[in-house]
Write a structure and sequence with these properties.
4 helices; 257 residues; 7 strands; alpha+beta
């Protein structure tokens, strides 16, 4: 049956009150959480036992070993390699034979240089003898010119005295002219003697320099160790044909690294 008006008004109030009572009961009956206790902050560390020891610092480095006395012999001329008695990494003593070029490739140039020097010496000596002869001949040419001049004067005098002829005078004058020309040429030869001698002396010095160069090339065809050391590299082998300046070996001393 329908509820009366007062009951309809009280029913919501009763429901709300019941709900409040249930919530209050639940709140009061919940378990209580323990109160947090303050704790001191803790640091995490590791410990090692200290044991006294003697230690040395170690450092890895990278470098290049060099020497200021590194030697790199080269070919003194065009030749064939005769022998190479060493290999890369071999040690050697000072004065040891390391490489030899065929000496027959250097002997013709040496012979030609000696012949050129002999020729220049002979030409110089010949010119000195010629100069000495020219100086002696110069005095003779001067005397001959004086005689030719006297002959002209005599022919002129005889012609003036009507004891000679025009032909004799012309012949005397022609002889004098020829003698004057010969004297002029002789004086020029004597004057040029000094310049010719300097030219031949320069030619002799040039030939001597070429001979010294050929002798040095033959000497350097045998590569001998300038110091005690080790072979760093060998660039040629026996039978190879090399040219002037071709690198042959690389050497370095063990005592100066």
């Amino acid at each position: 049956m329908p509820l009366s008006r007062p009951l309809r008004l009280l029913l919501p109030v009763a429901i709300l009150g019941g709900a409040v009572a249930v919530v209050a009961y639940l709140v009061s009956s919940r378990p209580s959480a323990p109160r947090p206790q303050p704790q001191e902050r803790v640091w995490q560390v590791q410990t090692l036992a200290v044991v006294p020891e003697t230690r040395a610092a170690a450092l890895t480095l990278y470098g290049l070993v060099e020497t200021p006395r590194r030697s790199a012999p080269a070919a003194p001329g065009a030749a064939v390699v005769a022998q190479v008695p060493v290999r890369e990494g071999d040690g050697f003593a000072a004065g040891a034979l390391l490489l030899e070029l065929d000496p027959r490739d250097f002997l013709p140039a040496l012979a030609a240089a000696r012949a050129e020097l002999d020729e220049s010496v002979a030409l110089l000596e010949n010119q000195r003898l010629r100069g000495s002869a020219d100086r002696e001949a110069l005095a003779t040419e001067e005397r001959l010119l004086a005689l030719a001049e006297a002959a002209v004067q005599r022919a002129e005098r005889l012609l003036g005295q009507r004891l000679g002829s025009d032909a004799e005078l012309d012949a005397a004058r022609s002889a004098r002219a020829r003698q004057q020309l010969a004297l002029t040429e002789r004086r020029h030869a004597v004057a040029a003697q000094a310049a010719t001698l300097r030219q031949l002396e320069a030619r002799r010095e040039h030939a001597a320099a070429r001979l010294a160069e050929a002798e040095l090339a033959l000497e350097r065809s045998r590569v001998e160790a300038p110091f005690a050391g080790r072979v760093a590299a060998v660039h040629v082998a026996a039978g190879d044909r090399v040219q002037t300046g071709t690198p042959l070996l690389d050497l370095y001393p063990l005592a100066d690294l």
